[in-house]
Amino acid sequence: VEQTNATFWSGFIFLAFSSFGELQLLLFALFLSLYLITLTSNVFIIVVIRLDSCLHTPMYLFLSFLAFSETCYTLGIIPRMLSGLVRGGQGISFVGCAVQMFFSASWACSNCFLLAAMGFDRYVAICAPLHYASRMNLTLCAQLVGTSFLSGYLFGLGMTLVIFHLPFCSSHEIQHFFCDTPPVLSLACGDTALGELGILILSLLVLLVSFSLISVSYTYILATILRISSTKGQKKAFSTCASHLTVVTIHYGCASFMYLRPKASYSLERDQLIAVTYTVVTPLLNPIIYSLRNRAVQTALRNSFQGGLLGKG
């Protein structure tokens, strides 16, 4: 009991990248550069979509909220990770760890449901284009966005409660750079089978429900595209979904590998690498993918950039 109490009050210590020695400064420079690009790109997309009236459509509304969610997600993780790379092993209180887990899990789950909402938007746009404006009205879009964030917060709260209901009576050193569920769960002692099952069920619900909705949307989309007689028409219809499909593949690939597996299969070194992918790389790829593959976003960005230069001149 004394050991458990001591762990509760002292909190945890992050030891990610501690074995890299002098390379930590190189990692700091690399991750800082990627983070600044990510932050700038996502904020720029939000601002451009807000200012350009041509982008005031449901698809870009969802994209702006996805960029907002990714920004909040990285803000809760990467600055502390960068600080740890400079200062070495950095501590976090028990409550602070729970708060970080809640918000990181909430934003991550919200992203899953936002991607499902974006899939539904593409379904209506391709399968019922004549009814797109009436069906995808502002009220429905607000409901989809609100439901995505509310669902994310509820699932994030559930995961946090499941983890921090467990006793922590062993090492309080987290071989990771933030309070993610797998590394924190690995520190729990006693019989953690119920906690593992709870996390697995919640993760399955988030990933399977959202991915199932996306799969249903794209089943109808694919059927509609195949009925288009011209190859040019098929390519044009599919091109409107390419960016979304790419982001979905990356997002669900990392999330499934990380959270849909038993505790016994955790590998600290490998998991840190996967975590870097979905906390640093994926939020950077999202704006790049949508910017490079979307002519409307490219045009808006170009106009904003040229307008800024003309304004200065």
TrEMBL record:
Superkingdom to which the source organism belongs: Eukaryota
Alphabetized, the UniProt keywords read: Cell membrane, G-protein coupled receptor, Membrane, Olfaction, Receptor, Sensory transduction, Transducer, Transmembrane, Transmembrane helix
Q: Name one Pfam family in it.
A: 7tm_4
Q: Which InterPro entries match?
A: GPCR_Rhodpsn, GPCR_Rhodpsn_7TM, Olfact_rcpt
Cellular component aspect of the GO annotation: plasma membrane
All residue ranges annotated as the G-protein coupled receptors family 1 profile domain in the record: 41-290
Question: What CDD domains does this protein's entry cite?
Answer: 7tmA_OR10A-like
- What are the subcellular locations of this protein? Cell membrane
Q: Which Gene3D superfamilies match?
A: Rhodopsin 7-helix transmembrane proteins
TM ranges = 25-48, 60-79, 91-117, 138-164, 197-225, 237-260, 272-292
What are the recorded GO MF terms, alphabetically? Answer: G protein-coupled receptor activity; olfactory receptor activity
Give the principal location in a single coarse category: membrane
Q: Which topology term describes how it sits in the membrane? A: Multi-pass membrane protein
- Described purpose of this protein according to its UniProt entry: Putative odorant or sperm cell receptor.
Q: Which family does it belong to?
A: Belongs to the G-protein coupled receptor 1 family.
What's the name of the protein? Answer: Olfactory receptor
